[in-house]
Amino acid sequence: MTFELPDLLYDYDALEPHIDALTMEIHYSKHHNGYTNNLNAAIEANGLGGKTIGELLSKHNDIAAVRNNGGGWWNHCQFWEAMSADGGGAPSGDLAAAIDSSFGSFDEFKSIFHKAAMTRFGSGWAWLGVKDGGLCVCSSPNQDNPLMDGFCNPILGLDVWEHAYYKKYGPGRATYIDAWWEVVDWVEVSRRFSNCQ
Ligand code: MN
Questions:
Q1: What does the pLDDT look like over 46-100, one tens digit per residue?
Q2: Would you say the CATH fold of 93-195 matches that of 21-81?
Q3: How many CB atoms lie within 10 A of CB 35?
Q4: Helix/strand/coil (H, E, C) string of the chain?
Q5: 166: CA distance to ligand 1 center in Å?
Q6: Omega before 17 cis (within 30°)?
Q7: Residue of 123, 98, 105, 195 lying closest to 154 (CA atoms)
Q8: Which CATH class is domain 21-81?
Q9: How many whole angstroms separate alpha carbon 114 and alpha carbon 147?
């Protein structure tokens, strides 16, 4: 199986002013494209053709090139799809109820997620995931994700690598996180949550 860079569902400037167009262009066309090409090269080099991304991440993550580039490919696919110019606000329905049940309130969830994203030292990701019938927040280093160790089933991930925010926000990761909430597509996250039930 050859993996492809997925089409973006919106223009580079669609998420302005929260996510700037230049960051989107470089992040998608350089970083994500690089992970995609390097994943395919790692698959070829290690004789892993025909595996699904789930198999590669959970069973072959002992190979650094598969772990880093397979994670980079999957993490960014879910990241683009979970943002929208029509995003922001708060979830509704079953996901909203699950957030209230697991964290107390949507605001409390955002606070916990924000802390996880802020305290991930260096490069990595913060995650909302389904675990043991409820929801959890966790984070991972580099391009790792919870599919690698099965800690949870991730339904929303935030990229906290500096390449995701430095051009617009400089070292201001907290400001970037605040801006990102304004573009989170809760319809997409709800769809993912439903698929886990
Ligand atoms: Mn990234």
A1: 999 999 999 999 999 999 999 999 999 999 999 999 999 999 999 999 999 999 9
A2: no
A3: 23
A4: CCCCCCCCCCCCCCCCCCCCHHHHHHHHHHHHHHHHHHHHHHHHHCCCCCCCHHHHHHHCCCCHHHHHHHHHHHHHHHHHHCECCCCCCCCCHHHHHHHHHHHCCHHHHHHHHHHHHHHCCCCEEEEEEEECCEEEEEEEECCCCCCCCCCCEEEEEEECCHHHCHHHHCCCHHHHHHHHCCCECHHHHHHHHHHHC
A5: 11
A6: yes
A7: 195
A8: mainly alpha
A9: 21
Spatial strand order in the sheet of 153-159: 134-141, 124-131, 153-159
Gap between the Cα atoms of 195 and 13, Å rounded: 30
CATH 3.30.830.10, domain 93-195, yes or no: no
Amino acid at site 121: F
For ligand 1, the distance from its centroid to the CA atom of residue 161, given in whole angstroms, is: 6
Spacing, Cα 122 to ligand 1 middle (Å): 13
**Domains of the chain, residue spans:** 21-81, 93-195
Near ion ligand 1, which residues have CB within 5 Å?
Answer: 159, 161
Q: Please tell me the distance between residue 168's alpha carbon and the centre of ligand 1 in angstroms.
A: 14
- Rounded to whole angstroms, how far apart are CA atoms 161 and 151? 21
87 CA → ligand 1 middle, Å: 20
The whole-number pLDDT of residue 197 equals 86
Q: How far apart are CA 43 and CA 22, in angstroms?
A: 30
